[in-house]
Amino acid sequence: MAERPYVIDRLISAKSIAARIEALCLEIRAEYSGADKIVVVGLLRGSFIFIADLVRELDMAVEVDFIEASSYGDAMESSREVRILKDLRSGIEGRDVLVVEDIVDTGHTLNHVMGLLNARAPRKLMSIALLDKPTRREVDFRADWIGFEIPDEFVVGYGIDFAQRNRNLPHIGKVRFTEE
Ligand code: IMP
Ligand code: MG
C-alpha cells in the first residue's frame, strides 16, 4: 500500500494551526483555572508535535505524560479493537487531566482511552483532538475541543503519518494517489 505513488495536497497551513492552538489554549486555560497543575497526556505517536505546540502555548503549570494505543498499523483502515501498548508513567487519581490526540476518526481509540483513564478517578478529564472526521464515526464520541473538522480524507503531516512517513511535514496535507 505505502508503495503506491502519491502526492500530498495542502489542507491546513502551519499558520492556521498555530492560530487555532492559540485560541484553544485560552479556552483550556479558562476551563482548568481551578487547577494548580494539569497532566497533559499525549497519545503516541501522532500527537507529538501537537502536544509540543500546545503545552508551549498553555500559560499554566503542566506535567507531560504519554500513552500509546494500537491503531492502524501500516494500513489506512482503523482497527476496532484498541490495545494499550504503553501506559502512563504517573497515576492520575484526583488529578486534572487533558488528553491530546491527533485525529478522531471512527472514535474507537479516544473513546477507549478516555474510558480507561476515567476508571482511574481523575478529578477532571477532558480531551482535545487536532482533527475530527465526524462522518467516519462508529461510536458516539466527541472530544471536548477540536482544532479542525475535516472531510473523510486520509491526512498526513504535523505529526501524523502514512505508514510511518510524512510526520515531519509542517502542515496538514491530504494523500492523493497518482495511479491505480
Ligand atoms: P479512530 O478510528 O478514531 O480510532 O482513530 C485511530 C487512529 O487512526 C487515530 O489516532 C489516528 O492516529 C489514526 N488516523 C485516523 N485517520 C487518519 C488519517 O487520515 N491519517 C493518519 N492517521 C489517521
Ligand atoms: Mg493515533
How does this structure look, described?
22% of the residues lie in helices and 31% in strands. The model has no long low-confidence stretch (mean pLDDT 94). Helix 2 (48-57) links the parallel strand 2 and strand 3 (62-69). It is globular and about 55 Å long. The chain has helices at 14-31, 48-57, 108-118, and strands spanning 6-12, 38-44, 62-69, 84-86, 96-104, 124-132, 145-149, 155-156, 172-177. It is α/β, with parallel strands linked by helices and 180 residues long. A six-stranded mixed β-sheet has the order 4-3-2-5-6-7, sandwiched between helices. Strands 1-9-8 form a three-stranded antiparallel β-sheet. The chain contains three helices and nine strands, in the order E-H-E-H-E-E-E-H-E-E-E-E. It has a single domain (15-148), classed as Rossmann fold (3-Layer(aba) Sandwich), CATH 3.40.50.
Number of individual domains: 1
Q: What's the CATH architecture name?
A: 3-Layer(aba) Sandwich
**Net shape:** globular
Indicate the low-confidence ranges by residue numbers: none
Describe the oligomeric state of these chains in a short phrase. single chain
Bound molecules: inosinic acid, magnesium ion
Order of helices and strands: EHEHEEEHEEEE
Beta-strand content = 25-35%
Q: Let me know the largest β-sheet.
A: 6 strands, mixed
* Rg on CA atoms, Å: 16 Å
**Through-space gap between termini:** 11 Å
Share in helix: 10-25%
How many strand elements? 9
Mean pLDDT score, rounded? 94
CATH C-level label: Alpha Beta
Q: What is the CATH fold-level name? A: Rossmann fold
How large is the count of helical segments? 3
